[in-house]
Amino acid sequence: MTLRVAVLGAAGRMGRTVCDAVRAAPGLELVAEVKDGPAIESVADAGADVAVDFTVAPSAMANARWCAANGVHAVIGTSGLNDEEIAELDALFGSSEPNAVLAANFAIGAVLMMHFAAIAAPHFETGEIVEMHHDTKIDAPSGTAIRTAEMMAAASDAWAADPTEHASVVPGARGGLGAGRIPIHALRVRGAVAHQEVVLGTTGQTLTIRHDTTDRTAFMPGVLLAVREVGTRPGLTIGLEPLLGL
Ligand code: NAD
Question: Nearest C-alpha to atom 42 of ligand 1 is from which residue?
């Protein structure tokens, strides 16, 4: 059976790449390319089964409400959604079809980096996250960095207090604090795509886990996996981990 796919944010950097990936994927048909808000009505006309959203946070929420009300499964890659918005997605997609997958990072290597950081977390007392993205990324820190801190904090509650926290000569020099008070440092550098290091330390040793996305095609296997699987996963699935069996 062919899955009919709509791409929301089709004129953007990620949206264009998703359109190319869907066109090239067996068993998928690209039926709508939505380039602005009102055009979402074309998704219903096109009979889409799944809508993939790479827009901006306020648009992604409006699009998700529309998908939930119109019976279209949603695969949401847009970052910058806050806790209340994620709770709203859970309510929108919670009880009956359609379903949704929300992933801060669709690059399988990045999902593994987060997983490895959570495995390592209980064995170290200090951990910091350094993420680097292109200089036109609007939100900071990245959704991946926020989620990495959440996963590390959930895996260990033994993080050492940061002795330098109140001693920054330049405000913000120690980064912002994510879950578990894990410092997150966000670099915005022209020429970068998406990069992250997790640096863990304990007496006499450090462990660095690093992932680099050098091209947006890195996200496509994960996006296509979510497109194929969303219809079989009731409710809201957060992160690609369950789809990868992690
Ligand atoms: P971009 O600015 O290049 O593209 C966003 C596009 O969405 C723009 O063309 C904009 O006009 C359009 N848009 C805004 N509202 C819209 C609406 N209601 N309907 C249709 N189109 C609308 O941004 P980008 O680099 O493509 O990134 C998009 C989002 O994806 C960002 O939040 C980014 O952080 C996120 N992202 C997530 C992943 C992941 O793996 N989850 C990977 C890369 C980027």
Answer: 105
What integer pLDDT is reported at residue 146 of this predicted model?
94
Q: How far apart are CA 169 and CA 191, in angstroms?
A: 29
Q: How many domains are contained in the chain? A: 2
Tell me the CATH number at 207.
3.30.360.10
Instruction: Give yes or no: residues 84 and 47 share one domain.
Output: yes
Q: Which of 54, 139, 219, 238 to mutate to test the pocket of ligand 1 (most atoms within 8 A of CB)?
A: 54
CA-wise closest residue to 151 among 184, 110, 121: 121
Phi/psi zone of residue 134: left (φ > 0), alpha (ψ -120 to 50 degrees), beta? beta
Tokens encoding 17: 């790449």
Residues with a CB atom less than 6 Å from ligand 1? 8-9, 11-15, 34-37, 54-56, 59, 63, 77-80, 103-106, 137, 219
Strand-by-strand arrangement of the 236-238 sheet: 28-34, 3-8, 50-53, 73-76, 100-102, 236-238
Task: Say if residue 115 is in the same domain as residue 203.
Answer: yes
Verify that 87 and 10 share a domain, yes or no: yes
pLDDT tens, residue by residue, 129-173: 999 999 999 889 999 999 999 999 999 988 888 877 778 889 899
Domain that holds residue 79: 3-102+217-244
**Distance between Cα 110 and ligand 1 center (Å):** 19
pTM here is: 0.90
Residues 210 and 223 in one domain: no
For a ligand 1 pocket test, name from 33, 52, 79 the mutation site with the most ligand atoms within 8 angstroms of its C-beta: 79
What residue owns the CA closest to ligand 1's atom 1? 12
Question: Which residues of the chain are modeled with pLDDT < 50?
Answer: none
Q: What is the pLDDT of residue 133?
A: 96
